[in-house]
């Protein structure tokens, strides 16, 4: 056995060296030699700081060039340090999906938070919202909930969600409810927002951005004013002429973003480090210890496999159990041995982050640190 | 608005009453009136204690009748209280998927733990295994790892994983490696195990149980002895003539188990309580606040939808975002209103449990308690 495969001659397992074999690995760790050994129990989530920083800068530059305020969605990462990097790069504020996420980020000092979700306002939800310091705004897409905002602190604003083609939540820009909601919100009304989720899929970004612009503009025209807030990572490059955008996944990128045309493989900043635990040479099948309990199983019909090996896109995960990934290894590439470590690019980064309590961050100088996923599991 | 929909006339949200409307809900909460109000922030995982107890008893009775030792897999629930119920019902010990799970359950006093996984034995893994008190056994499916067990405490046993048709990890019962692994294990060898995962799917259970029996028997015949350990929830009812079985999901059941023929809807003990946050009357579309970050997205090709509404199997989730479930509501049933609560039967219970830190348990007398998911996220 060669070095780096974890087995010494005597049969005792060696410390794992976090390194790559040049024949079939690349990515954040490509062509780099490390002067130290490091042991990470796999599976584990890795972040490459240089790529993360570049992704944050690139989106901030796009927003700046188009004079769109950036309010990134922190549900993707749920990590204070990353949200701070986004604000330091010029973000106006942050976007959350739940009251629980907003509580965490407000507690860490973030003072301008939009919960871009049509919250159901129970008494408890109202109490919790009223207790969050800073500038808070929420989403509303029904007359009932517009009326229910009456219990909220006066300075909490509301944006009306409109549907720009994703057909999920949100009222249509032409519906009579739109004006009724606006009326019920009174002075709380701040504008309209949409999530152009139909941007996901190969080549969908441009049309989704056009739909978004039309839905937002039609809405504020009908309502005689208000902020327009939109944005998704796949449509972001085509977004223009709206007031604010709320992309999320762009900080990490993932297989969905690559396939949607939003990034390249070299812009993927988050991977799942895994170990080959089993192999079948005649079938060219290997089994990794990263399963659905860390990779999640998000798999739209337009994606092949449940993630792929970084630097080796043909090596796709054909099946995922809770603690096993099955890969039928490409013929032209040397079959990995037991103990070898592979970096997996997941299909959907947001669901991966929500499965771990901390991530390992590789700094530009080669050192590592960990960050806590402080808002993990804050589903309500 | 009627009662129970969370809205008072004045527009202020009311406390949610956890109750069902008789027209379109059933299940654990069917035809029951509660004399109290209870507020649970949704989405949340609910366990019905009566059904849980019945599921545990039923599997214990089957195992007892066939003289098969029961070693349930705790990765399904990751909850101490449930593992204790299983042991109290006669389980020989428990099965874990990872060292981290074994550490948690050993720390809670469980003394007979099989980690049914072909672990990669790093130095750190060996240290951790050696520190777990009690009777510990692990899985092995390669000569390399059989040799690497030399670093383990002498009383830690190993079972060889064989592939009975699932084509994941495990050696084939006829492979030359089988004897080589047995030889390398020496006195640590305790038997063979398999996971007949090809039991998942409509009508697959019986054939998978037959394949399992053949693979296990062939293996111990070649190896001149040893324990035979198998079992999965869908094949369990057909399992006979092996020494030990390790089903997991049967405690809760889920949409996969129903479709695989392993249970009925009335035997589902775990649901996700969710709230209708948005509706589109003309499309008959409702949006729930339970998304992929609590329901997970496990969806085999032979399952329709990403879970369904308890008591209303035609109401299936057609799309899942992180915090939204989209349901196109059946024509014959009254469209739920905003604020209404629905219980969702997920496709795969094991991945749901791993997304929450606690569950709500409804006792037989109608009171509630919470249990901690102590082994959540223990992926390594």
UniProtKB/TrEMBL annotation, chains A, B:
Domain D-serine dehydratase-like: 269-363
Keyword Lyase: yes
Molecular function terms from GO: D-serine ammonia-lyase activity
SMART domains, A to Z: D-ser_dehydrat
A GO BP annotation: D-serine catabolic process
Gene3D superfamilies: Alanine racemase (3.20.20.10), D-serine dehydratase-like domain (2.40.37.20)
InterPro entries: Ala_racemase_N (IPR001608), D-amino_acid_metab_enzyme (IPR051466), D-ser_dehydrat-like_dom (IPR026956), D-ser_dehydrat-like_sf (IPR042208), PLP-binding_barrel (IPR029066)
Domain of life: Bacteria
Chain positions covered by the region annotation Disordered: 1-22
Keyword vocabulary terms for this entry: Lyase
Pfam families per the UniProt record, alphabetical: Ala_racemase_N, D-ser_dehydrat
Record-stated family: Belongs to the DSD1 family.
The name this protein goes by in its record: D-serine dehydratase-like domain-containing protein
Originating species: Corynebacterium glutamicum (strain ATCC 13032 / DSM 20300 / JCM 1318 / BCRC 11384 / CCUG 27702 / LMG 3730 / NBRC 12168 / NCIMB 10025 / NRRL B-2784 / 534)
């Amino acid at each position: 056995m060669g070095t780096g495969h974890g087995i010494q001659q005597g049969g005792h397992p060696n410390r794992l060296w976090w390194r790559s074999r040049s024949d079939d690995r690349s990515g954040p760790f490509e062509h780099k030699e490390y002067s130290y050994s490091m042991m990470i129990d796999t599976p584990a989530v890795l972040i490459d700081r240089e790529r993360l920083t570049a992704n944050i800068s690139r989106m901030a530059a796009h927003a700046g060039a188009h004079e769109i305020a950036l309010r990134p969605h922190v549900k993707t990462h749920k990590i204070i340090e990353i949200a701070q990097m986004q604000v330091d790069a010029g973000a106006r504020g942050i976007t959350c999906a739940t009251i629980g996420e907003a509580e965490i980020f407000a507690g860490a000092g973030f003072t301008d938070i939009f919960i871009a979700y049509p919250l159901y306002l129970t008494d408890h939800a109202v109490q919790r919202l009223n207790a969050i310091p800073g500038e808070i705004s929420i989403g509303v897409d029904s007359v009932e909930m517009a009326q229910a905002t009456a219990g909220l602190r006066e300075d909490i604003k509301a944006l009306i969600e409109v549907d720009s083609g994703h057909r999920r939540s949100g009222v249509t820009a032409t519906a009579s409810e739109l004006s009724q909601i606006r009326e019920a919100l009174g002075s709380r009304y701040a504008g309209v927002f949409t999530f152009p989720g139909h941007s996901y899929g190969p080549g969908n970004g441009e049309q989704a951005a056009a739909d978004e612009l039309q839905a937002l503009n039609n809405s504020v025209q009908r309502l005689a004013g208000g902020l327009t807030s939109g944005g998704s990572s796949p449509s972001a490059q085509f977004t223009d002429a709206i007031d604010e955008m709320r992309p999320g996944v762009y900080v990490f990128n993932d297989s969905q973003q690559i396939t949607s045309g939003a990034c390249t493989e070299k812009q993927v900043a988050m991977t799942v480090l895994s170990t080959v635990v089993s192999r079948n040479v005649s079938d060219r099948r290997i089994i990794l210890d990263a399963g659905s309990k860390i990779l999640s199983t998000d798999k739209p019909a337009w994606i092949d496999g449940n993630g792929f090996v970084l630097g080796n896109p043909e090596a796709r995960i054909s099946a995922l159990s809770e603690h096993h990934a099955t890969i039928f290894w490409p013929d032209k590439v040397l079959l990995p041995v037991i103990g070898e470590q592979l970096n997996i690019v997941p299909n959907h980064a947001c669901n991966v982050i929500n499965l771990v309590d901390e991530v390992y961050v590789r700094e530009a100088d080669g050192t590592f640190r960990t960050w806590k996923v402080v808002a993990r599991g804050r589903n309500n």
